[in-house]
Amino acid sequence: MTTHPLKITGTHLADGRELIYFDDSADVLSGEVTRELTDPRDLPGSVTESEMRRDPLTGEWITYAAHRSNRTFMPPANENPLAPATPGHLPTEIPSTDYDVVVFENRFPSFSTRIAMPENPDDYDWQVDGEEIFLRRPAKARCEVVCFTPDSSKSFRDLPLSRIRTVIEAWRHRTEALSAIDGVIQVAPFENRGEEIGVTLQHPHGQIYSYPFVPPRSQRILEQAAAHRTATGRDLFDDILDAERRSGERIITETPHFTVFVPAAAKWPVEVMVVPNRAVGDFTGLTDEELDELPALLKHLYSAVDRYFEGVERTPYIAAWNQMPVQDRLTGEQERLRGEGRLHLQLFSLMRSPNRMKFLAGSESALGAWISDTTPERIAGRFREIWEDEQ
User: Fold this and answer.
1) Can you give the residue range of the structural domain that contains 145?
2) Span 173-198, average pLDDT
3) Which of 12, 32, 89, 353 is the most exposed place for a label (fewest CB within 10 A)?
4) 16 part of a folded domain
5) Which domain CATH number covers 293?
6) Residue 71 half-sphere exposure, CB side, CA atoms within 13 Å?
7) Do 271 and 169 fall into the same domain?
8) Catalytic residue ranges
9) Would the pTM count as exceeding 0.90?
C-alpha cells in the first residue's frame, strides 16, 4: 500500500466559478512553487437558464441549455482555454503558468447551481404552458471540467502512473463534493475524445456531471440489479463476473481488485468494462489497495484502445464512470433501488472499422433497438491480442 502525496488548492475565477488545483509535483508539494490564484479577466457573473422537462411518453428528463450553442469550438492553439496562462497570450481558464491536474466549473454548463430564478420561488412555472402532464424543473446541479495535463499534445494514455492516480484522486474528491450539493442524485466523471465524438476542445480533458435525477442507463441498471436480487438473493454484478469467468470468452484481464471484459451483450463496435471485484458504490469507497492498482490498469487499457484499429493512431472514444446514486436522495419508487449498482467504467467507440464510424440510424435512434456490426467475442479477441503484445 502506498500513500499518494497531493496538494489541493482552491480559488475562484473572475465570474465566481470555482477552480481547484490537484498537484503531485515535488516542487509544489514542498512549497517551492505555488499556483496563481487570481484570474485577471473581466468576466460577467456566471448565470444560466438551464431547465429540464419530463417526457410523458418515456418518463425521462430532457435538459435544455441553449447558452451552450455559443460555447468555444475548436479554437486555434494560441487561444486554447484549457492551457496554462502564458505571458503575451490571451488569458485562459487556468490562471497559473503550469499545473498538474486542474478542475473547474464549466463556463457553459448543462447543469448549474447558478440558474436565473424568480425572487419568489413560487413564481417559477413548474409546468410547461400550465399543463400538468408537461413537468418542468430548473436544471440545478453542477458540471465541471478536468484537465489531465497542461500539454495539449498528450492524451490520457500518455500520463505517468502518478498523474493518473492524481486524476483518480480528483474524481474521488469531486464525487464527494458534488454529492453534497442539495438536489444532486448522481455524479458521473467521463471523457469524450476525438472530433468524431463531437469534442469542441482538443486539449486532453474530461468532465464531471452531477445530475438532479438518475440518468436512464443508470436507472435501468439499478432496476435490473434490484429485480435480480429479488429473484435470486444475489448481487447482479457478482453473478455477471462469475459467468464471464466461467465462459472465459470475453475477459481481457483480471487483477486482484478489478476485472476487464467485453460485456456479453456489448452494443458498440468497440466496448469494454472495468468492474471492481467487490461491491463498491463510487470512487469514495475504493480502498488504498484498489486505488494503487487502478492507474496501471487504466493506462494499459487506454493504450490498447489506441492500438485497436490498424492505421488509427487515436481511436475516438467515450469513457464514462457509472457510479451509484446518492443513497439518501432516492425517494418514492426509487427507494427500492437503494444499495444496488456498482462503480464501473464503460469505455466504447463508435468507430466500426479504421476511420469509419457507426451512425445511429432508424432502428437505434428512433426505436432504441440496437443492431451491432460485430460480436462481443470478436471485440474481446482483438483486445486480448493487443493486451498480450504489450506485456
Assistant:
1) 7-211
2) 95
3) 32
4) yes
5) 3.30.428.10
6) 16
7) no
8) 205
9) yes
Query: Percent of the chain, pLDDT > 90?
Result: 83
Domain end point (choices 179, 211, 243): 211
Looking at per-residue pLDDT, the higher value among 178 and 87 belongs to: 178
For the chain, report the end-to-end CA distance as a whole number of angstroms. 23
User: CA angle, corner 341, sides to 334 and 316, nearest 5?
Assistant: 115
**pLDDT band at 390; cut points 50, 70, 90:** low
Amino acid at 18: E
The mean of the pLDDT values for the chain is: 94
- Which H or E run contains 165? helix 161-179
> Is residue 383 in some structural domain?
yes
Please name which of 326, 290, 100 lies closest in space to residue 213, comparing C-alpha atoms.
Answer: 326
71 falls in which pLDDT band (50, 70, 90)?
A: low
Residue whose C-alpha cell reads 456489448 in the numeric block = 266
Torsion of CA 128, 130, 133, 138, to 10 degrees: 40
- Say if 2 falls within a structural domain: no
| Contact of 277 with 151, CB cutoff 8 Å | no
Q: Is the pLDDT of residue 54 over 70?
A: yes
**Residues 201 and 260 occupy one common structural domain:** no
In whole angstroms, how far apart are CA 119 and each of 15, 116, 124, 142, 180? 21, 9, 9, 21, 24
